[in-house]
Design goal:
By secondary structure, the protein is an alpha/beta fold. The chain is built from 18 helices and 20 strands. Helix 7 crosses helix 13. The chain is globular and about 65 Å long.
Length: about 475
């Protein structure tokens, strides 16, 4: 895949030339603060601007590094002096300051793009609408267990820029959202993984699915014949795009529906992985991550491991002992024979579908929050088969009632995690599961999905 992009003028500056060159960072979260530190280390005149309040611990860091910053405003006189701007992924294109920068022709890039200029590490980049964090964490786990000098960054952990400034890794495994990919131009993945594409964040893409798909495929830009593109051969949106475009990288698909000569496929209960140089087989009942969606995730990680020629025993062992990340199908406790699972990271319908699909028995499902224009139709079949009751957790639950009242007799409204957990506990029976998998963003009642998940875990332990 090839794209024409403007090459930033700042990339050719030597360290002495950077002195006095203004670099502005918009947004002072993990990504922005890390970028500011790396920029200062590289000799730029750094200014950080956040339109909202900056968290105290980030302010302390910026003050300690003597980096100038502002909060609750954007001072255009400061910002428009920039030779280049690093934009945090949460800031949309329609933000007035971003529009103004575009009009002035000032280069706007992502933290990942900026940090990539200062590392020679090989990059494994992972994107997709669902499964990114799990696959990124599993891939990192395998590589680390194999003894590689590897870092974990992107949409997870410490910022990539901060790690580039403070560490010397040979490899990085990066979780990449579409928002990050949108502002990446010259950055190149040695191994690019695209797990799947389902409608999400369409408000950021003018409600055009093709814009979102194009954004996801930016993960393949700049790849050469020495690089690899790993993708799901069962994903309709992925295949549709690929029939209309060419790719320089070596293609390694994965599938649970058909046999493939290269990549990975499922043969009965066994995963078969074939790369040009290596082969691996593993039975799915030995995987730490169960469920159809996790077979896909494990295939993508396994292909990566074999590209890097890791030993089969190490790969099998790592896939068997991996512990999933917090808030993603995280088993919290079993109380009175009822299993409680925290899947607060499921902020869209497709994520909840995957969670329900992996549940073995009857489920009391906790749903709700900020509805991003959800189409609940794709959940209907699974809900009617597996869900005995729905507990709503949100300020406005009308659309959940409308979607499922014909399928489910019991739908309960709650406004706090404690009430939701109590209600679910009384509705569930021994051998059943209480699943928090909201299919919605958390901003109506919580700061983020982590706070929602943490409150859920606390409420369960207080039963």
């Amino acid at each position: 895949m090839s794209e024409t992009n403007t090459i930033s003028s700042i990339t050719s500056f030597s360290l002495s030339e950077k002195a006095g060159v203004r670099l502005v960072v918009l947004g002072a979260g993990e990504s922005g603060v890390g970028a500011a530190y790396l920029a200062q280390q590289q000799g730029y005149d750094v200014f950080v601007s956040d339109f909202g309040p900056i968290a105290d611990h980030y302010k302390v860091q910026l003050q300690g590094w003597k980096i100038r910053f502002e909060e609750n405003q954007h001072t255009e006189a400061e910002i428009f002096q920039a030779a280049e701007v690093i934009k945090s992924p949460g800031i949309p294109e329609k933000a007035p300051i971003v529009k103004a920068l575009r009009e002035k022709g000032i280069s706007v890039i992502s933290e990942i793009e900026f940090a990539g200029r200062y590392t020679h590490a090989k990059i494994v980049g992972i994107t997709g609408s669902n499964g990114k964090t799990t696959t990124t964490s599993l891939t990192y786990h395998i590589l680390k267990n194999a003894g590689l000098n590897v870092g974990l960054a992107g949409n997870i952990g410490k910022s990539f820029a901060y790690q580039v400034a403070t560490e010397h890794f040979d490899y990085y495994v990066l979780e990449l959202s579409s928002f990050m990919l949108d502002d990446m131009y010259q950055f190149k993945m040695h191994i690019a993984i695209l797990l799947n594409i389902t409608p999400d964040h369409l408000d950021r893409y003018n409600y055009q699915m093709e814009n979102y798909v194009t954004s996801k495929f930016r993960i393949t830009q700049n790849q050469t014949a020495d690089d690899y593109f790993i993708y799901c051969a069962d994903d309709a949106e992925t295949l549709k795009y690929m029939t209309e475009h060419t790719f320089e990288a070596q293609l390694l698909p994965f599938s649970i529906q058909k046999e493939l000569p290269l990549g990975a496929y499922l043969n009965g209960e066994e995963i078969n992985i074939n790369t040009p140089k290596n082969h691996l087989q593993m039975t799915i009942n030995k995987l730490a991550l169960q469920g159809k969606h996790n077979i896909y995730n494990s295939m993508a990680s396994g292909i990566t491991a074999k590209i890097l020629e890791l030993r089969n025993d190490t790969v099998r062992e790592s896939m068997g002992d991996f512990k999933n990340i917090a808030h993603r199908l995280e088993e919290v406790a079993v109380i009175s024979g009822i299993k409680f699972i925290n899947d607060s990271k499921a902020t869209n319908v497709n994520s909840t579908w995957y969670a329900l699909e992996s549940m073995p028995g009857k489920v009391v499902l906790i749903l709700g929050g900020v509805d991003k224009g959800n189409d609940y139709n794709e959940l209907r079949d699974l809900v009617s088969k597996k869900v005995k009751a729905i507990v709503c957790l949100g300020k406005d639950n009308r659309r959940i009632h409308e979607a499922f009242s014909d399928e489910i007799d019991t739908i309960v409204d709650t406004r706090s995690v404690k009430d939701a957990v109590q209600a679910a506990y009384h509705l569930a029976k021994k051998g059943e599961t209480v699943l928090l998998s909201p299919a919605c963003a958390s901003f109506d009642l919580f700061k983020n999905y982590e706070e929602r998940g943490d409150q859920f875990k606390k409420a369960v332990m207080e039963l």
